[in-house]
Amino acid sequence: MNSETDTAARAAWVQADAELAAKGRSFHWARHLLGETHAARATRLYGFCRYLDDLADEAASTQSARENLAAASRAIVSGQSTDPVLSDGLRLMAECQIAPSIVQELIQGLVSDLDPVRIPDEAALLRYAYRVAGTVGVMMCGVLDVHRPEAYSHAIDLGIAMQLTNICRDISEDAALGRRYLPASMIGEVDPEKLVLPAEGFHLALSDCVTSLLDKADRYYASGEAGLSYLPFRARCGILVAARVYREIGCKLRARGCNFWLARMMVSDREKAVLTAQALLIAPARKSFWQPPNTHDASLHLALRGLPCIQANPC
To answer: Do the domain assignments include residue 313?
Structure first.
């Protein structure tokens, strides 16, 4: 890189690091376990994805959000942009061999949030989770210098698991924005406003739904962890810790009876330290931490057929 490009990349990293510390505390914690190069790339990836998200969430109107994301999509296709954050994202894509198609899927997921969100069934929920989080798992593979297609399946699963956890934690907050990610097939065609502070008679049905989604998330977490052996050792440790810390949000939600409306679940720094120690002491004793799995559970991707990096589909 020339000095001007290097300066722009440094500025993008500084901005991304600040956002990661403020908005991605679980990943900021786990990032310290990565090597210097991978940690820097992971931070830039977070900044890139967060910027795309903010193009939608911080726009003055829905129309301007659509225009912003459409412009970003064109930049991804062309490989050129005058926007400093997008430019750094494009450099990162080239450096890490991240396919434009996978970023396009992320953008498609963000665009879908601009419409009234009323998820009809679990298949639609999984496809949404793939787009906004499973794709990031694939991008992280590139960031960590892993380009084996079989690794992508497990990276997608870990992203989906984290997104399901995120959805269960943020039901009230999302509902206040007019978004209902809980599938109608599980709770009925409920208007989002009824999820902000649900009526007492609705509590049991909602708790059962959240429990079911957290059970599903656990299946995806298990598959995600099964693929950690594809990663370099330090990255393996870092991603394991990030997964355990994020999964703890769901564990704490379960312990409270899945009553998401009472308070937003958080994992304290002390709890993160305990989870980190447990993960790094116990996981390396398992054979799966060192050897890739023989197969991937194809049933986890039945709802994702036709999407990039799923089964025989190229990224």
So the answer is: no
CB–CB of 137/159 below 8 Å? Answer: yes
In a domain, 52, yes or no: yes
Question: By percentage, how much of the chain surpasses pLDDT 70?
Answer: 91
Rounded to whole angstroms, how far apart are CA atoms 18 and 261?
A: 29
Above 70 in pLDDT, residue 17?
Answer: no
Of 13-27, 211-225, 245-259, minimum mean pLDDT range: 13-27
The reply to whether 310 falls in a domain is no
Residue 90, in any domain of the structure: yes
| Identity at 104, one-letter amino acid code | Q
Cα-based angle 61, 69, 94 (whole degrees, multiple of 5): 155
pLDDT of residue 242 exceeding 80: yes
**What total number of domains does the chain contain?**
1
Does the pTM surpass 0.85? The reply is yes
Residue 282: HSE in the Cβ half-sphere, 13 Å Cα cutoff: 9
In this structure, are residues 112 and 128 in contact, taking their beta carbons and an 8 Å threshold?
yes
Residue 56: give its domain's CATH number: 1.10.600.10
Question: What span, in angstroms and rounded, lies between the C-alpha atoms of 217 and 69?
Answer: 29
